[in-house]
Amino acid sequence: MSGLHGSLALIRASLRRDRVRIIVWVLSITVMVWASASSVKGLFPTQADLDTAAAASKNPAVLAFNGPAQALDTLGGQVAFQIGSPGLVITALMSIFMIGHLTRGEEEPGRLELVRSLPVGRQAPMVAAVVVVTAMSIAVGALVTGALIIESLDTAGSMSFGLGYTLIAMVFMGVALVAGQISENTRLVYGLAGIVLGAAFIVRAVGDVGNSAVSWFSPIGWMQKARPFAGERWWPFLPALAAVAALVGAATAMLDHRDLGAGLVAPRRGRPTASRFLTGPVALNARLQRGSLLGWTFGISVTGVAYGSIANSIETFVQDNKAMSDLLVGSSGASLVDAYLATSTRVAALIGAGFAVQSMLRLRSEEAALRAEPVLATAVSRVRWATGHLGFAIAGSVIVLLATGLSTGISAALVTHDSGLVPRVVVAALAYSPAVWLLVCVALATIGLVPRAAPIVWALLVASFVVTFLGPLLSLPGWATNVSPFEHLALLPGAPANAVPYLALIAVAGGLALAGIHGLSRRDIG
User: Fold this and answer.
1) For residue 283, what is the DSSP state?
2) DSSP characters for 388-409?
3) How far apart are the first and last CA of the chain?
């Protein structure tokens, strides 16, 4: 039997089973780019606005976060600058998560072993995953190109920009494939691929701030070296194509040299007996999720430093752009620096909420993977098991928000020489705790009452992002804005705060938590 036998059947099965996941990823990235392009057009309606923005964007921190300054006095150049680097990272994450889900995510719980017991070749599951993710990458690139053309941007630049999204997705598809052969643990696969992505971002940032030749060592740098909307160059895409071929070939060779269910690197043996610290469900959960907490804390700290480090440039950036000034300040009457830090802190808090949601949903994944039953077979009650996960998600979210406030506040204080910003920004970040806790308790309620609907909490988080980023520009109605729990809280620092919304969110979160725990204690496990 050929090693590729059964590939078409597996491709059809993956498309059928994961159609919602695929559609959400592709459309989310497309809408993000379209909305960003539309926002840039609204923020810089005249050439004078573009010239002012180009002059203010030479800050090294801005270049490190967004990428090289290429044709920033043009609309296309600003679009590529504002959404290029962040969008490339998100598209790479799409490939990493999808490959992990389609390969190790099937192999680790033993489902792939059942599939392989049928007339299915050894390479067929990997080939099916590659075809599906490649199709997603092409779809993202094509739709992004179309969205930019609809916004009246240059066709060649739009094609170059979209092709960059396609190729970055395929490069990190290869990275995730190789990581999936090295480790037998799905979470470690995500971690290894994430480390490579983080290194690519840092190398690109170092090159863009200092010696531009360094950026050639980063796949993200390759895409930006193509200069979309700034005199396109197509040959920088060749290293990406070569990297895709090399990584997929290496992953295929590794697959032939390992056992099904195992990795090339055997996991480290644990201690023969557990420490007293691991004698309860809370400690066990903390042990399992400590890597995730550290990763999210580090990532959000880097984001906070990037936001805070340009606080001293914000007045120069928007002094001649009334649209952006009004967007930041609104009716709060706060200073531009306070308004900017308030908006940045809310965005960072939204990102940090991703950890809290992921942590709470671990309760459901432990149940689905049948690891909950051995725990509940002991003296551990369902309530204690659920509250252990809830407590870690809440405590971890506070740690992530604290890191957000400290990193943003300290970096802003250093560049503005105003040490008073540190406690104010820390308070502003921690003030979003009730909104984050509400998301956590929505996840717990769905797990307890409608477990199959638990991922819907991600949709609520995405809706909160849309309201924060696009609400003012799209003039969303009040009911749509109120969908986001973050919108009910004051934009600190600078705006006046009212205790009622905070207490209301905490009360609603508490009710949802009780409902979830009650439902979990009465329904069947699994």
Assistant:
1) H
2) HHHHHHHHHHHHHHHHHHHHHH
3) 37
Q: For position 7, what pLDDT does the model report?
A: 86
Q: What are phi and psi of 498, to 5 degrees?
A: -120, 130
Residues 340/328, Cβ–Cβ less than 8 Å? yes
- CB-hemisphere CA count at 13 Å for 85? 24
Domain boundaries, the chain: 1-264, 277-526
SS (H, E, C) 62-131: HHHHHCCCCCCCCHHHHHHHHHHHHHHHHHHHHHHHHHHHHCHHHHCCCHHHHHHCCCCCCCHHHHHHHH
Check whether 5 has a pLDDT greater than 90: no
pLDDT in tens, 335-390: 677 777 888 888 888 888 888 888 898 888 888 877 878 888 888 888 888 888 89
pLDDT, tens digit, 9 for 90 and up, residues 144-203: 999 999 888 889 999 999 999 999 999 999 999 999 888 877 777 888 888 888 888 888
pLDDT: which is higher, 49 or 92:
92
Please tell me what DSSP assigns to residue 525: P
Q: CA-CA distance, 425 to 139, in Å (whole number)?
A: 40
Cα(213)–Cα(222) distance, rounded to whole angstroms? 11
* Paired tokens of 236: 């920088």
What average pLDDT does the segment 474-497 reach? 76
67: left (phi > 0), else alpha (psi -120 to 50), else beta? Answer: left
Q: Which residues of 422-435 are buried (b: 16+ CB within 10 A; e: fewer)?
A: bebbbebbbbbbbb
C-beta of residue 336 within 8 angstroms of C-beta of residue 365: no
Quick one: which H or E segment has residue 380? none
- When the pLDDT of each residue in the chain is averaged and rounded to a whole number, the result is 83
**For 147-170, what is the HEC assignment?**
HHHHCCCCHHHHHHHHHHHHHHHH
CA distance linking residue 451 with residue 434, whole number of Å: 23
